[in-house]
Amino acid sequence: MKKAFPLLVELCLAAVVLVASALVLPSRVMAAGIGVSLTTSPVSEVLVSGPGTTATTTLHVQNNNTLPVPMTIKLYTFGAAGTTGRPALQDATPADTFLSWAHFSPSSFIAQPDIPVAVTMTIDIPKTAALGYNYGIAFVPTISASNSGVTVNGSNLILILLDTSSGNEVRSVQVASFTVTKKLYEYLPVTFNVNIHNNGNIFLPASGDIFISKSANIAPGTIIDTIAVNNSQGNILPGTNRVFQEQWSDGFPVFLPKEIDGHAITKHNQAVYQLNWNFSRVDKLRFGKYYAKLVLSYSNGERPVPVMAVLSFWVVPWKLLLLLLLFILLFIGLIIFVILLVHRMRKLQKGSYRRHG
Amino acid sequence: MMLFAAFSASNTYKLNSYSIGPGGTNSAASSTYRTQSNAGEISGTGNSTTYTEYSGAVQTEQLNVPLAPTLSNGSGTYYNELQFTINPGILPSDTTYAVAVSPNNFVTTYYVQGIGILGGTPLYQTYTAWGGSSGSYMTGLSYSSTYEVKVAAMEGFFTNTEFGPYASSTTTSPSISLSISPTSSNLGSLTAGSVITSSTNINASLTTDAESGANVFVYGQYGGLHSPSKGYTIAGVSGNLAALSEGFGLQGVSATQSSGGPLSLVSPYNQSANNVGIDSTVPYRILTTPQEVQSGSSVIELQAKSANTDLAASDYQDLLTFTASAAF
Fold first, then answer.
1. What pTM value is reported for the model?
2. Which residue does chain B place closest to A7, by CA atoms?
3. Per-chain mean pLDDT for chain B
4. What is the CATH number of domain B176-326?
5. What CATH code is assigned to B70-170?
């Protein structure tokens, strides 16, 4: 839209713009509404149904505001953005024909205040369907946009993953890496990063546990703690990695998120941690080399398949140790001082005897 | 009477325990098992739909079958866990208990382990170790699913009971709540060459119990301030508006929460001064939380700058939509 106007025209235009700038955006573009407030459930769901069949689920949406809101449904597809399970939302394109398989009842409705609305989603899966399909279902309040200024709306998204159980599915994941954020910790928590790669062609979850032991063989009798991994059964999309971050925090002392009046404290958008000294847990003082064994399992369609990895790390509360060492040295010094004092007093006493003898 | 307290023994046998009845009992043990058997007693099992009866002196050593535990889904807030409280009734304080769980009326049975996860082997712990009257949690459950839970008791050897009657509870479904207000934001008049900041900020509130957290995306209908009458758009940009000739964007002012989270602003929306994040027709992430968050709250302002070459119009507009989504 920017054109190379002659200088005179441009200057005139600039003057007009300056004079008329008050008209660019009115000072009050639109009466401020009460806003939008929605609750939706579930947040994501896996549907499994074969080609030529129908998959059905129920989605719930509730308008939390005090006035009724007309509601429509907008469909997205999505892939993986990053490694945290975050959807990379994509607007529907003509190529995304699978979106047209989905139908909703009701497809549009008036959401009354505080009354949950159950919306039935039905997917008519054609016989030609294969592998998996990702649906992002957005419940969007219908708001009439102002013809000037910025109108603001809010919507909630429910993620649906459809597994067609087609015969060409390859269900496989592997541990890309199993690491700790540091090799040496002063105190717990120890943070584990479990990086799982889906090398198959269908999304699937992998979940299990991390077993902590002081023994390198991590036999059942030696396990001192167990940490669940991917408890919520998050999925890994084919060809992508997903990192599950888990913490081992059963220690003394331990860094815990700082709270004031029940409110979590953050700094620069990060949680602030503080050292917690709960002396009833003094038996949980961690020291030395530890081993962690990751045992995950996923279904290959026929049976659970385990995947494993092992690592080691150190927990050395060096400040505590230095303090302890200082006390020991002070104690030894005190003993030496007392011995020397006694020795000197005896010497003095002997000298006194000689003088008097 | 004292004779009953003495254990009978010879070179070939030793009677480890007595019961008063028509026969004697015997115990044997190794490092891997213990058995107790009796002889000369009436044996057999009687049962109906409401009870099971075992005969024999050994049965008299057993504890009472524990009552059904008390279950809670947190008043409809737990979606992958349930709280259970064992009902010890009149059982002795040194009794240990195992907790069995099933999602399908005990066609498949799991057992609660010490830290709440489910395993394949019963774990016997004291009432206190299971949380006492405060109860304990079993985790790793599926949402919107009904679970049956029952308890068995044991006190020393040869006393463990069968699992008692079950209680059931249903997990809920994780949810996400997003509130946006107001539905318009005031930018006022755009003076060419000046960065204008909205006097009305946008408040975004996010609450979710989704374990993997959530994100809030933002996109615009036009990806900038668009004038239909002039067919011109002051495009959405990421960058420093003070240094750019024109543009429109969003800047997060704050992000807090009451618990969980933390809810944080995502680059490029987490800048200050005149650095803004883009208003695009494609959804961009503006807020994130790595885990569940309660009463997450963020304030977002709008900034715009027009160039003196922009066409004057009174219908510059955009429709910004904030969309909340959990992980897949």
1. 0.76
2. B309
3. 88
4. 2.60.40
5. 2.60.40.10
